[in-house]
Design goal:
about 475 residues, alpha/beta, Aldehyde Dehydrogenase, Chain A, domain 1, 2 domains, seven-stranded mixed sheet, 15 helices, 18 strands, disordered N terminus, binds NADP nicotinamide-adenine-dinucleotide phosphate, binds magnesium ion
């Protein structure tokens, strides 16, 4: 069964398409030319100096945390504590990659006695970065920091509705000593600005975070241009709970897994696979904890009107499959919440893995619970998905935990905790969840390319034979 959406979303452009496109192309062209002009200087800046600037950017983000949090909250409606954690994480990216600019970047290869052969890593030059609205500054930093550390220059297009903190980042970076042109933000719609970046001849690599249909459309352009891509797309990740797990802890983690950022996270745990012998007991714990998520407190709103509609559409989709929510399934109403778009954490029980609610990414706080009997069955269900971003396994049997973690088709797996993500851990998908890796030392490899250099060494004059007497 194929459940992947295949058409790029409508771009909503009406009259004035030509003008908008022309303006976007002009803005992107200007940014790319400025970037290309700055590329040589940045690449050949001493590593210490590059690292210091990246570290200064990290410190500045923390110094101006309140301003960044206020901007992020105004644009997304997120609870301030969540925005703050994400922005601290954004600063972490700059700090982490600042510390990696001194990494040895090549090898010496033992090929032949008359050759000295070595490899070196080179930046691509102009890197285009396109980011979504769900964790705006955090995701921009996730791509920009390693790209800059590897010696590239960057042109960023944030999501149109949430550009504020990315624009602030570029301003702060400039004020902290990043040379002009090294990091430029071009705000605007994806259909014009985003496309213009991917098509621009000076752009040599694109890192895209967002939906599968847009990733596919970027991939088609990239195929024509032989343009390397990092694609961080969606997910429908499985969280597997065995009967021997610490059920209270696992239930709390399972709720965190699908309600964090109101489910607007690519790595949400949206399929909960529960061993049948504890299924009813475990579901009761999950439902009780889900009901404690208070809209406007722990639980943020849907960030865009479109996402608010999408989630309600999926309530309908689930109903058409005969599902009745064990909790939620509606818009949340509470005093003072009227102006925001809240939905209740929603749990569907008795889901089968062929239902749309188990196959399609909702991008809201909606959980599909599926019962299983054996380890093999759990792994098979987890892997029966178009996506493969993350996975979780909760069990007291550590051999089983490792077996399952290794069998899950996903870029990262959590054992006995959900989403212990950090900047050091490489992050990325299998299958339709994308390719390439962000985060960790690994990301540097995706923002650079290897060159091997061989040098002929003149043979030494013949040695005088050692005297034997
Ligand atoms: P989206 O519609 O794909 O948009 C992502 C970005 O691409 C936005 O900046 C958007 O611009 C731009 N864009 C839209 N059409 C484009 C085009 N034709 N060419 C170039 N760029 C274009 O995704 P979204 O709805 O914002 O975000 C939700 C999706 O992102 C979910 O599927 C989620 O799983 C995924 N996501 C993945 C990760 C990850 O790390 N794997 C992280 C977060 C989100 P505008 O919207 O401004 O027009
Ligand atoms: Mg979109």
């Amino acid at each position: 069964m194929t459940t992947m959406p295949t058409d790029p979303p409508a771009d909503g452009l009406g009259d004035g398409l030509g003008d908008a496109l022309g303006d976007a192309q002009e803005a992107v062209d200007e940014a790319c030319r400025a970037a290309a002009a700055a590329a040589y200087g940045w690449r050949h800046t001493e590593a210490f100096a590059r690292g210091r600037v990246l570290m200064a950017i990290a410190r500045r983000m923390l110094a101006d945390l309140d301003e960044l949090v206020a901007t992020e909250c105004a644009e997304t409606g997120k609870p301030a504590a969540l925005a703050e954690a994400e922005i601290r994480g954004a600063a972490d990216y700059f700090e982490f990659y600042a510390s990696l600019v001194h990494l040895p970047s090549g090898d010496v290869l033992d090929v032949r006695p008359d050759l000295h052969v070595y490899t070196m890593r080179e930046p691509y030059g102009v890197v285009g970065v396109i980011t979504p609205w769900n964790l705006p500054l955090n995701q921009a930093a996730r791509a920009c920091a390693p790209a800059l550390a590897a010696g590239n220059v960057v042109v960023v297009k944030p999501a149109e509705t949430t550009s504020g903190t990315t624009l602030a980042l570029a301003r702060m970076a400039l004020e902290e000593g990043l040379p002009p042109g090294v990091l430029t933000v071009v705000p605007g719609p994806g259909s014009t600005v985003g496309t213009a970046i991917v098509e621009h001849p000076l752009v040599r690599k694109v890192a895209f975070t967002g939906s599968v249909p847009v990733g596919q459309s970027i991939g088609r352009i990239a195929a024509e241009r032989i343009l390397p891509l990092t694609l961080e797309l969606g997910g429908k990740s499985a969280n597997i709970v065995f009967a021997d797990a610490d059920l209270d802890f696992a239930a709390a983690e399972a709720v965190r897994a699908f309600t964090g950022n109101a489910g607007q996270v690519c790595s949400s745990g949206t399929r909960l696979l529960v061993e049948r012998s504890v299924h009813d007991d475990f579901v009761a714990r999950v439902v009780a904890l889900a009901r404690r998520q208070r809209p406007g407190h722990e639980l943020g709103p849907m960030i865009t009107d479109k996402q608010f509609e999408t989630v309600q559409h999926y309530f309908q989709v689930a109903a058409e499959d005969g599902l009745v929510p064990a909790t939620g399934g509606t818009v949340a109403v509470a005093p003072g919440l009227a102006e925001r778009r809240y939905v209740e954490p929603t749990v569907y029980v008795g889901v089968t893995n062929d239902m749309r609610i188990a196959r399609e990414e909702v991008f809201g706080p909606v959980l599909a619970v599926i019962a299983f009997d054996t380890e093999d069955e759990a792994v098979a269900i987890a892997n029966d998905s178009d996506y493969g971003l993350v996975g979780g396994v909760f069990t007291a049997d550590m051999s089983r935990a490792f077996r399952v973690a290794h069998a899950i088709e996903a870029g990262q797996v959590y054992i006995n905790s959900w989403s212990t993500q950090s900047v050091q851990m490489p992050f990325g998908g299998h299958k339709a969840s994308g390719y390439g890796r962000e985060k960790g030392i690994e990301a540097l490899a995706h923002y650079s390319q290897v060159k091997s250099v061989s040098v002929r060494i003149d043979p030494a004059p013949p040695r005088t034979a050692a005297r034997s007497s």
